[in-house]
Structure formats: C-alpha cells, structure tokens
Amino acid sequence: MCLGIPGRIVATVDVAGLLMGTVDFDGLTREVCLAYVPDARVGNYVIVHVGFAISLVDEAEAHRTLEMLRSMGASLEAEL
Amino acid sequence: MRYLDEYRDPALARRLLDEIHTTAIRPWTLMEVCGGQTHTIVRQGIDTLLPAGLRMIHGPGCPVCVTPLELIDKALAVAARPEVVFTSYGDMLRVPGTGTDLLALRARSCDVRVVYSPLDAVRLAERHPDRQVVFFAVGFETTAPANAMAVLRAHQLRLPNFSVLVSHVLVPPAMTALLDAPDRRVQGFLAAGHVCAVMGWTEYEPIAHRYQVPVVVTGFEPLDLLEGVLMAVRQLEAGHARVENQYARAVHRDGNVRAREAIRRVFRVCDRAWRGIGTIPDSGLALADEFARYDAETRFDVAGLTAREHPACIAGDILTGAREPTDCTAYGAACTPRTPLGAPMVSTEGTCAAYHSAGRAAGPFPVVLPAPVRSS
Ligand code: SF4
Questions:
Q1: Which ipTM did the prediction report?
Q2: Residue B329 C-alpha to ligand 1 middle, in angstroms?
C-alpha cells in the first residue's frame, strides 16, 4: 500500500465539496482524492497513496536532479 | 512513463554506484526504513552491488508487518459479525491472526471487502445504511491523511454506520527506539520519501543531531536509492550528521501542511504496540476524543483482546534489522508467501517476502561483491 508512483492528472471534479481527480498511471486511470493538493491542475504529476494525492511532483526539481546526476557522472569520467 | 523511466536509467545508476565505491572508504551500516525501499533494493540487488564494507539493513517500515497480532485478532472478531462489512487493503487479508486470517473468514461468507482507498469504505457506508461498515486503518504517516479524511467525510455526512479500527504507527519514535537499543548498529538512515512528503523532515533534525546520524530523505526508484546511499556515505565519511533531502521533486521541509492538519485534527498521539518489537511510547495515532465515536474497538467491544505470536517467527529481529530473513529456521520452509507464519512474509513490502520473491536461499546469503567499474 505504500509504493506511491507518480501519475498525471487528466481531469478534476468537485464531489460534494471534495476535490477529486482522474489520474493516469501509465495508461491505467484511477479516481484520486486531490483535497491535500488543492493547487494541482490537469497535466500535473502527483504522488498517490491509497487513493490520495499527497504531493505534487515538481517537474523542474525532477529535471534538476537528473541533470545533476548526469553532470556528476561526466565530471567523474573527466577525472579518470 | 515520465519520472519512472528516467529514475531507472541504468547508465546513471552505474555512475552513482561507481561514485559510491570511490566515496565509501570505511565500513558503514545504513538502514532504509521503508518496506517499499527494501523491495527496490532487494529486487534490483542494490545491496549486493555496494562496496564490501557498506551494509544495508532493513527497517521496520512495512505497515502490514508491524500491525500487532492482537489488532489482527480484533479485526477478525469484528469481521466475523453478521452486521459488519469489513473493509481493508488487500495486503491485510492474508496476515495470519492467532487462528485464521481475513481471507479465510471471507471464504466462510463473512463480508470482507478489499478497497483501494478508505473513501471507498465511506461510500459503502453511504450505500448500505443497514450495515456497519468498518475500515481497517493501518499504516504510517503516509496513509494517515487518507484515513483522517475518511473519518472527516463520514462525520460531515453524519454516517452512524461507519467506523475505523485504528493501528497507526509513526516513524520517528521507531527510529529513536532503534538508536536507543544497546546493540545499535545503524549509522545512517534513508528516510522514507513518502512519509516525509506528508510530514516534512523537521522531526528528523533533533534525531540526526542528538544521535549524530545522517538522515537522507530518499525516494523509491533505483536512482533515488543510490543517490540517497551516496549522500549518506558522503556525510559519514566527512563526519557530518544532518538531514538532507534527496527527494526534492516531491518533498518539502514542512511536508504537506493540509494533510498534517487533518491528521492533527482527527488523531492524537498514543503509545503503540509494534508487531514483533513491542510497545514504543508515543509511536502511534489513535482517534482524538472528538471522533471517538468512530472507533470500531469500542463500538464492537474488542478492545480487551490479546494474542501470542508463532514461536518460530523472529519478526522482531527482522523488523529491527538485527537479523536477516535467511537466519530464520522457518524461512522458505514452514514459512513462505503462500503459508506465512509471520507478517514480514505476507506483505509485498515485508522483508521476508522481498527476500523470498528475489529467490534468496536460506542459510547465510553469499554476497557477491563485484569490483567497481571504472571507465579507464
Ligand atoms: S521467515 Fe516467516 S517465520 Fe521467519 S521471521 Fe520471516 S515471517 Fe517470521
């Protein structure tokens, strides 16, 4: 129950005061409660646990990390 | 899929491994707290690719595993009642109680249903006003916001037939208990990224400082784990003990403020028994007084039930990283994922199940340590 994987929000809807959304996990869509990520918009990636989005994935931060890892490898190779 | 494929890039993983091999000069022992991380580590063989002196030990972070046996027995007692629709995550159905499990009860036509989210259980209660719908609310800080919202929703809808059987546990007190143990072996932690997505990491700062252990908030993909290991090792080699955040794409210092508020409103901190470990002070969540009427333990009068573990099972040692599954005499023989004796063999996040599904043989596990790959 704990392996949250990122999914992409494809729709949002208000269900009697509760913000819900449809989230696409690589082709598999699921209904997800978005009450804890009220800033989430269609197109955003979220990390979902037991039907609740608990975190928005920061795309800039995701790319920054990958770039850092890539450049780390490059500088290592330059040293060798 | 974005942010999955990229964080599984084998070429980058190789670079990170090389960097770890260059950085780790002295022997160190790191613990990954979360069962989801244990699975990635064991399935990908990450632990076997690390330098010889660098050990990963597996922590108590599997929600199914740490739910105490007596809570399972309470769940069974509640689920056996004819007026009850008992709802739970699928993993919990196979956890053996003293005499049986929820799956067997279901086969005996008790109304036990698997739900994907606690809100599904609330919906069932709305749809079946003549039944008592009970949700088995287990897990760490990651599932607590969902369960808090289910209670708030039932409260808002004034549902008299919804209740929760609560067995929530909290990570920081468990880390403190491990660090206070006389045979403490953990020198650094990879903290579970998703727990921190909810709670942030401020609670880890006094722990890192007081016990002088690095704590690295880490994600769940292979690259996340390797980078988390590297960050922890860099700190250890430099003599630092700070909280660092590897999982910046999903975790902020204060976590998810709304989720924390919901947890604070619905629950209160309590002492909690951990399966195989025992009671840890202030390590759990129970319903706050305002929501006490949603407590299934009192509604169905099962609060007094107690239980005893299977004598062969060394789950306590497994969950504290003191021993490995392959040290257990029942591992792979009397205890398999099809016939689990203890909780760590049941859940897909359990350490025993992780070892078993990776095909690790019983007896001392031969760790093959390849030399670091250098491009020169
Ligand atoms: S192998 Fe089975 S009996 Fe042994 S510790 Fe793991 S769960 Fe318990």
A1: 0.87
A2: 8
